[in-house]
């Protein structure tokens, strides 16, 4: 399997605290991966390092075989077009229409006429499951679940091969969260996307994830299906899965 994300021996210190202490992981094309770990273990920081927003003190990060932290500005621009990111808060522009929010990456990274960008944006909105009348609204006129879908549509604007999502279901009610999970899996399967998401949501793990990577104490504690990880003798991981056991059985076979 082609490697899409490669993280090797990453060391991160922030504010005098060691966050990552020689962290390594890799993700293959087409995998739907969840990164989990206790609060403050450095999941979001790692995500920012992988997408080139924060530089680790040591180690190597590669996307599609290109070193992120040795890339020239031109190489980074090419890389940025190959991945989309959905940040935790959606980071939508409140003053722009939904359609222009989604068209913004097309305005910025392509020479297409603005009307064409908007037409493509409408297609992405439909792909993200939004009704046509959402396009001309402002983000504030939509529900939280719909705003997430707008942010997803924007992350898909440039037809990425790789999608990063930071806590995609946080702030959603359980029904919207499960619908959003299903949408991510559908898009991954339909478009051949590789998905790397950070989550605390056990239902997401049980329903749509191929492989879970667990961060603990600055390193990868383990990686595998939920069933495989249940055998790891780690207090945080055991407590995490116990929370699910109290809620009932998993909805999916892994
Ligand atoms: N820019 C920064 N400067 C200093 N410390 C930071 C910075 N960004 C993050 N941190 C610290 O790094 C640690 C890891 O943060 P991070 O947000 O990656 O954790 P996380 O695993 O995503 O946590 P959570 O599950 O609670 O979202 C935290 O202790 C955080 O306070």
UniProtKB/TrEMBL annotation:
A GO MF annotation of the entry reads: ATP binding
Xref: InterPro entries: AAA+_ATPase, ABC_transporter-like_ATP-bd, ABC_transporter-like_CS, P-loop_NTPase
Q: What superkingdom heads the lineage?
A: Bacteria
The segment(s) forming the ABC transporter domain are 5-242
Q: Which residues form a coiled coil?
A: none
> Could you tell me which SMART domains the record lists for this protein?
AAA
Q: Note the Pfam families from the entry.
A: ABC_tran
Q: Which UniProt keywords apply?
A: ATP-binding, Cell membrane, Membrane, Nucleotide-binding, Transport
Q: Which protein is depicted?
A: ABC transporter ATP-binding protein
Question: Whose protein is this, by species?
Answer: Thiobacillus sedimenti
